Structure formats: structure tokens, C-alpha cells
């Protein structure tokens, strides 16, 4: 037991994350004064970047550096306190509110030596963000196979809800800066265990593999390799960006695998029920909304509840759309004898796919703006608060309904309205 505890402590050590970042060419500036003085590495200037929202830039000895701001109040024996959304997080993961404390703004500069890893892992990290979900998941429905898309949606929603709720139940901290370089700040107020990026990447990769294994003709080895590469890239990106410890990532991957192992035997049953059951509309709308509204409470504001509501909203609207399409005989699934042959990629197919993508994204972005604006307007008017009041918009009774309405509308339009638009434009 003592050995296992030491192993867990080792895997949670921020120094392990910092060592990985250094191996990939990402350093805190004070760790590499030689680069800061010369401004050159292998004959080329070294640049440092940080999130645009919290970044200030200047030039030092000819080197372009970025200062990634962290609001700190003290540092003692390796314990750093920083403030986010009016609360203070200690490196042990405990949040406390302070009224009289006056924090001091300090800056952490970092140097990028290897731009291949920098852009690779920044791209991989983006695969776990909202922009990926709002593009990849609909595209599988529009351009590939709705059968696979349905499984992706409900497995993704189950895995992400469990992962997000686990963070706020376990309340384990993210790695501290320093020694870790943090390239993201939006989710810094969230807890770290488990990594939901790792969970989502593993779930999406291997759900796609398992759903297409006996449905399409392709070498299993290639599919397995693609799933492993994608999940590993996204998982490692969470270490590179300094947002998770090694233990967070391992638990995320294992947790996703366990959930998939338990649910895989009933995937076909779930798919059948969501298409044919008369209770599907009620279940799809009521259960996810109640799960969002009764999300675990915290003593400080965190984006986890909003992100979880977004995920459940997309799943809710999509399931409702799947059910409605089935009632009207519009499943949009490929026909023929199983297993299907994967069609060759031709210029005509690419052109149709691009046309569908453009039309679909325009409809979804329009839906997002219209429904978000309308729901926020009426909710804020109902509760007699200003729509510009950010604190009011983070209140449970406003944030959950407007997020759920917005993204359930996106899920519904992605599965019902967008395919109908394809028919109008002759793309179906």
C-alpha cells in the first residue's frame, strides 16, 4: 500500500510534467537564461507565446517573449496561491474566498525551442475543445454514417458527464506554475482529476473503431493505429500545455476504457430504444436537463458545469433529432450488404462534403447566436438582471437553461434541419 501511495504521489508530481515539457522544448524563461540573453537557438530567433486573453508581450534582448499572467498572493515552501473568478486556489487544491487580501500580479515567461511539438500539441489540445465537437460530430452524421454518429454522441455524453462530475467530487488540483508552464487559462479554476480531454479522445477514437469494425471493410490494424495515435496525442497535449498531471491523464484514459467496456454490450439496445421508443423525446429532454441542473456544487465558480451542460444539451438535441428522423423514415444510413466498402475519395465527393460542411456550420452558428441571444434575453428579464452582468449569467438558474437550450437546438438542427437543407441544395 505504501508503494502504491508513493507511485500515485510520483505520478501527481508537477516536476514530472515540467520534465516532459522540457523534453519537448518548452521552458520557463528563468530556466533558460542563455536563450534569453542571446535570443538565438540554432541561428533562429526564439519566440514565446501565451493565451491571447491573458498575454502581454514585450521584447527583451531581441527576443519576443510572452508573459502568461497569474494572480498570486504569496509563495511559501512551494505553495503558490492564485486567484481566479474571485477565489483563491492553493496548490493542494483547496479554494477559499478572501475579501481583504490584495493579490499581486506577476508574470511567467516561457520559451519555445521546438515549434514542431508546440504546434502539434496545440492542435491536439484543440481536438478536445468545443470547436472540435461542433464540427467533427456533425460531420460524421452529414458525410459518413449516422449509425456511427449515434454511438459517438451517447458514448461521448456518458463519458464526459462522469469525467466532469468526477473532477468536482474528487477535487484534486491541477499542476502548479511554476515549475509547470501553463499554456491555457480558461479552465485553470477547474480541478484536474481526471483529464476529460483524455477521456473524450479515448472514447471517440475507440467508439469509432468498434462501431465500424464489422460495418466497413478496412484493415483492423490501421484503425487501431489511428485510434491509438489520436488518443495518445490528445492525452500528451494535456501534459505539454501544463493542464494535467500524469496521473490525471492515466486515470482519464483508464476511466474512459472502463466505461466503454461496461456499456459496449448494450450499445445496440440503446440505439434501438432511442429510435423506436415513444418515451425518447421526454427522456432526451428531461433527464439531461435535470442532470445539468443538479450538477455537483462547488464553493467557487468553475466552467465545468457550463461545459457539462453544453455536452448534455448537444446530446439531448441530437437524440431527439435521431428519433424524429426515424419516425419519418429518414435515417440517412448507407444501404447495401454488410460490410460496406469505403468509397474512394474523388474530387466530386470532396466538393459535396465541403458544401455540406459550409452549409451545416452556417446553420449551426446562426442557431447558436439566435438561441443564445434570445434565451439569455428572456432569462435575464425574468430574473431582473442585466444581460451584460457576467456574474448573473453564471448563476445556476440562468447559466444551465440558456446553455441547455442553445446546444440542444444545435444538436437538433444538426440532425434534422441541416440534412433537410442538403436536400434543398441537392447535396443529399
- Per DSSP, the total helix count is 15
Low-pLDDT sequence parts: 34-107
Q: Care to count the β-strands?
A: 11
Which structural class fits the helix and strand makeup? alpha+beta
Largest sheet: 7 strands, antiparallel
- Taken as a percent bin, the fraction of beta residues is 5-15%
- What is the terminal-to-terminal distance? 59 Å
Helix % is 55-70%
Give a topology summary.
Layout: H1 2-11, H2 14-23, E1 26-28, H3 33-38, E2 40-41, E3 44-45, E4 55-60, E5 63-76, E6 79-84, E7 87-89, E8 95-96, E9 104-112, H4 115-126, H5 130-144, H6 146-170, H7 196-212, E10 216-217, H8 220-240, H9 246-263, H10 267-276, H11 280-293, H12 304-327, E11 340-341, H13 347-382, H14 390-393, H15 396-424
Parallel strand pairs: 10-11
Antiparallel strand pairs: 1-9, 2-3, 4-5, 5-6, 5-9, 6-7, 7-8
Tell me about this structure.
Helices cover 59% and strands 12% of the residues. The chain is of the alpha+beta class. The strands form three sheets. Strands 1, 4, 5, 6, 7, 8 and 9 form a seven-stranded antiparallel β-sheet that branches. A two-stranded antiparallel ribbon has the order 2-3. A hairpin with a 2-residue loop joins strand 6 (79-84) and strand 7 (87-89). Helix 6 (146-170) packs antiparallel against helix 12 (304-327). The radius of gyration is 23 Å and the shape is globular. Residues 34-107 have low confidence and may be disordered.
Amino acid at each position: 500500500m505504501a508503494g502504491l501511495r508513493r507511485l500515485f504521489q510520483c505520478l501527481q508530481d508537477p516536476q514530472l510534467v515540467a520534465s516532459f515539457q522540457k523534453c519537448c522544448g518548452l521552458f520557463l524563461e528563468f530556466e533558460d537564461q542563455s536563450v534569453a540573453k542571446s535570443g538565438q537557438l540554432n541561428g533562429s530567433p526564439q519566440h514565446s507565446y501565451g493565451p491571447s486573453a491573458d498575454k502581454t508581450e514585450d521584447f527583451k534582448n531581441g527576443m519576443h517573449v510572452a508573459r502568461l499572467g497569474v494572480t498570486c498572493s504569496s509563495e511559501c515552501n512551494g505553495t503558490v496561491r492564485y486567484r481566479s473568478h474571485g477565489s483563491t486556489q492553493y496548490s493542494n487544491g483547496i479554494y477559499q474566498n478572501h475579501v481583504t487580501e490584495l493579490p499581486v500580479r506577476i508574470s511567467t515567461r516561457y520559451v519555445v525551442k521546438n515549434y514542431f511539438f508546440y504546434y502539434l500539441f496545440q492542435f491536439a489540445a484543440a481536438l478536445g475543445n468545443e470547436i472540435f465537437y461542433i464540427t467533427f460530430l456533425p460531420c460524421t452524421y452529414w458525410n459518413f454514417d449516422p449509425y456511427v454518429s449515434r454511438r459517438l454522441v451517447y458514448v461521448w455524453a456518458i463519458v464526459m458527464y462522469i469525467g466532469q462530475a468526477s473532477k468536482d467530487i474528487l477535487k484534486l488540483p491541477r499542476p502548479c506554475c511554476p515549475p509547470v508552464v501553463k499554456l491555457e487559462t480558461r479552465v485553470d479554476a477547474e480541478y484536474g482529476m481526471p483529464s476529460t480531454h483524455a477521456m473524450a479522445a479515448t472514447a471517440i477514437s475507440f467508439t469509432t473503431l468498434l462501431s465500424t469494425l464489422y460495418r466497413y471493410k478496412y484493415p483492423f490494424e490501421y484503425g487501431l493505429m489511428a485510434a491509438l495515435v489520436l488518443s495518445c496525442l490528445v492525452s500528451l497535449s494535456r501534459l505539454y500545455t501544463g493542464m494535467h498531471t500524469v496521473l490525471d491523464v492515466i486515470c482519464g484514459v483508464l476511466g474512459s476504457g472502463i466505461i466503454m467496456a461496461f456499456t459496449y454490450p448494450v450499445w445496440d439496445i440503446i440505439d434501438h430504444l432511442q429510435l423506436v421508443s415513444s418515451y425518447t423525446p421526454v427522456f432526451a429532454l428531461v433527464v439531461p436537463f435535470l442532470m445539468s441542473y443538479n450538477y455537483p456544487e462547488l464553493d467557487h465558480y468553475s466552467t465545468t458545469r457550463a461545459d457539462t451542460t453544453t455536452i448534455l444539451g448537444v446530446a439531448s438535441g441530437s437524440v431527439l433529432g435521431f428519433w424524429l428522423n426515424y419516425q419519418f423514415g429518414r435515417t440517412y444510413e448507407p444501404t447495401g450488404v454488410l460490410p460496406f466498402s469505403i468509397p474512394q475519395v474523388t474530387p466530386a465527393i470532396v466538393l459535396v462534403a465541403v458544401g455540406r460542411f459550409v452549409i451545416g456550420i452556417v446553420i449551426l452558428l446562426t442557431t447558436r447566436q439566435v438561441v443564445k441571444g434570445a434565451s439569455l434575453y428572456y432569462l435575464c428579464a425574468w430574473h431582473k438582471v442585466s444581460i451584460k452582468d457576467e456574474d448573473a449569467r453564471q448563476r445556476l438558474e440562468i447559466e444551465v437553461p440558456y446553455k441547455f437550450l442553445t446546444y440542444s437546438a444545435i444538436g437538433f438542427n444538426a440532425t434534422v434541419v441541416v440534412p433537410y437543407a442538403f436536400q434543398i441544395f441537392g447535396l443529399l
